[in-house]
Amino acid sequence: MWKEVSLIFMKRQLSSLDLHFLVMELEALKDSRIDKIYQPEKTVLMFSLHKANLGKKLLRICVGQSIFAAETKEDYGETLGFGMLLRKHLDGHFLSEISQLKPERIIKLGFNIKDENKYLYIEFFGKGNAILCDSHNVIINALEHHEFRERSIKPKLKYTYPIMDFNMFDLKNNELAELMKNSKKESVVVALATELGLGGLYSEELCLMSNVDKNLNPKNIDEKQAQQLQDSINSLLNNKTEPYAVLDADNSLIDFIPFGLNFYKNSKKTKFETFNDAVRHFYSQFREIKETEQDKQIKSLQRIIGQQKQTIEELGKEGHELRQKGELIYHNYGLIKDVLDELSKASKKFSWKEIKEKLKGRRHLARGEKFFPRILRQPAKFRAEKILKHSRLF
């Protein structure tokens, strides 16, 4: 069971601290040449890279969720529009930069060929985005166009991004105490997670490391506690990576961490050589199976078969009702004929309005008053035969 006010849940997005440690490892891809770019799905970008001393490598980006160096090439199928745009602008270029715009969850990929520089910004907050810019950071195009209150993501506009008030990677003296004093959150753990941008897991860990009650109102934090928290942040940032995948009691994968954490002290863990390996392992377990054209055709046929079955059932029900009506007419043929004959005689002397008045109180006859003129045009036997013939079609 999670602790009270716990912010932890199965990861779906990389945190700022995750990106910090991941970029350290991905920097090994710098100076690689781009062989090909793929976009098999709207939010998935694959960069096929080649570097002299590394050979071929794949950089897999799931916009808004993850980034890691992949091992094996997949069958990517057709590349979508944004991927084709990236090919046009970046094929043959060299990956000159891979960095994090700290403290934000944004990765900056720099590309150059001769004297030309271009940048691809990958945003991992919200639903995520990928923005291609020229050497002056003017947007060439983006995966998603947006119009926010504080910024716009559209071609020909300068790329800007939201900046937090405090940078956890460069906290000055008393800045954390100032953040806590002015916080609008109800607990220290939530203030650290959202206003400092640590995310749920590392905020929980920070409180454990500092021996500070995570449920304490941030305005009640004293100077000593604020300093303990700030020292713990520095300790986290300077930690040497010793990556793990974290498992629950049923051995199901629930998280990945760059090093051992107090929060997962009693959890099962699998060790990895690199943090990138742990991240790749985690996301590969939850990757959605791509629907093929054959799968789509099968689903379409199954839908059509289902509709046809429903139609057959409805027609069968209608046929059953018609058969019952036809049989009822045959069984009561004599009575029906006498009634119709009498009505036929009456129609020659009286108007249907007068007949209607005379039938008041005889509900079994009055109910059919509006059909009598049409009924009388056909013999009863013919009507019964027609109904039975129609019903046998079902």
Characteristic terms for this protein:
elongated; 3 domains; alpha+beta; 20% strand; 13 helices; 4-stranded antiparallel beta sheet; 5-stranded antiparallel beta sheet; ibrinogen binding protein from staphylococcus aureus fold; disordered N terminus; Helicase, Ruva Protein, domain 3; disordered C terminus; 394 residues
- Give the overall pLDDT as a whole number: 83
Which strands sit side by side, in order, in the main sheet? 5-6-7-8-9
Return the CATH class of the largest domain.
Mainly Beta
Query: How many DSSP E strands?
Result: 14
Short description:
This protein is an alpha+beta fold and 394 residues long. It is built from 13 helices and 14 strands.
Question: What does the model show?
Answer:
- The protein has 394 residues and is an alpha+beta fold.
- It folds into 3 domains: 138 residues, ibrinogen binding protein from staphylococcus aureus domain (ibrinogen binding protein from staphylococcus aureus fold); 102 residues, Helicase, Ruva Protein, domain 3 (Orthogonal Bundle); 92 residues, no CATH class.
- Helix content is 40%, strand content 20%.
- The chain has 13 helices and 14 strands.
- The strands form 4 sheets. A 5-stranded antiparallel β-sheet has the order 5-6-7-8-9. Strands 1-2-3-4 form a 4-stranded antiparallel β-sheet. A 3-stranded antiparallel β-sheet has the order 13-12-14, covered by helices on one side.
- Strand 2 and strand 3 form a beta hairpin.
- The longest helix is centred in the last third of the chain and has 39 residues.
- The chain is elongated, with a radius of gyration of 37 Å.
- The N terminus and C terminus are likely disordered.
